[in-house]
Specification:
alpha+beta; 2 helices
Length: 67
């Protein structure tokens, strides 16, 4: 499979997943994300309002995420 095949699978077949980070209190915090679109750069996702979502900061510093 190519990179684009994997990205297509994430968006079209899996679509929603749980992402966890460690909060400032040291406990895990989870969020549901919906992977909406993909291109050569990667996957674009949405999440609901309401929970702090520091994942963006983590991704922007590390440029990757594990699902």
């Amino acid at each position: 499979m190519t990179k684009m095949d994997y990205l297509k699978l994430l968006v079209d077949e899996i679509h929603s997943t749980t992402v966890a980070t460690i909060g400032s209190d040291g406990h895990p915090q989870t969020r549901i994300i919906d992977m909406m679109y993909y291109d050569e750069e990667g996957v674009y996702f949405l999440t609901a309002k309401g929970k702090a979502f520091i994942l963006y900061t983590l991704i922007s510093k590390r440029y990757r995420i594990n699902l």
